[in-house]
Amino acid sequence: MKAVAYTRVSTSDQSTKRQVNDLKQVEGFQIQKVFSENISGFSKSMEERMELQNMLKYVRKERIECIMVSEISRLGRNTRETLTLIHNLEEAGICLYIHNLGITLGADSEKDRIFNKLIITIISDIARLESENLSYRIKSGIKNRKKEGLSTGRRVGSIESREKFLGKHKDIQKYLVLGRSYPEIVKLCRCSMSTIHKVKGALAEVGEE
C-alpha cells in the first residue's frame, strides 16, 4: 500500500528516529515520504502544525493510500480534532495505520470501524488527560519549590533536570498510566528497566511536591 509516515516529538531533546524506524519495518506499506516535526501536540492546534498540513496536502496531491503514525497521540491530543481528521481521511478514501494498536482505520468493515473509533476516542482522551495532569503536577511542583526558596532547575552535579527528563519519556509515562507491565513497556518504548524505574520515581517526586 502506498503510504507516508508522520512522526512528531514535543521537545527539541527528543528524536523521531525510533518512530521512523518502527514504521519502516511494517510489512505491506511502501513509504513514499516521511514527515517529521518537533512541536507540541497539546498546545498547538492541527492548523498551526505546518509539517502536518504539508503532509495532508501531499497525501491528497500524490494519491497516497495510507498515513502511518506510531500512535494516535502523534496526530494530536485534542480528541475532537483527531476524530475530525480521521473522518476527513475516511471521506477521502485514505487509511490511517496506528502502529502501537496494530490497526488500519479505513480498511475494515463498518463494524470494525465503529469499534476502532471507540478505541481511538478512549486513547485520545487518556493522552489528553495525561498531558494535562502531568503539566499541572510539574507546574504545581515548581511553584511550591519557589515558595520554599528551593531551586527549580538542574541540581548541582546532575545531568538534567527532572522536568527535562520526564519530557523525554512521555511515552513511558503514558504506558505506566495505562497500567502496562514493565516488560511490555520495554518492548513498546525500546528502553531499559532502569529507565522505567527512574520515570516512575520522578513522577512520584512530582506528585509529592
What does this molecule look like?
By secondary structure, this protein is an alpha/beta fold. The chain has 2 domains: 2-109, Resolvase, N-terminal catalytic domain (Rossmann fold); 122-208, no CATH class. Helices cover 53% and strands 13% of the residues. It contains 8 helices and 5 strands. It has a 5-stranded mixed sheet with strand order 2-1-3-4-5, sandwiched between helices. The longest helix has 38 residues, at 110-147.
Rg over CA atoms, rounded to whole Å, is 18 Å
CATH class of the largest domain: Alpha Beta
Shape annotation: globular
Strand content: 5-15%
| Head-to-tail CA distance between termini | 50 Å
Q: Spell the H/E element sequence.
A: EHEHEHEEHHHHH
Q: Class by helix and strand content?
A: alpha/beta
- Sequence of strands across the biggest β-sheet: 2-1-3-4-5
Report the strand count. 5
> Can you tell me the CATH topology of the largest domain?
Rossmann fold
CATH superfamily of the largest domain: Resolvase, N-terminal catalytic domain
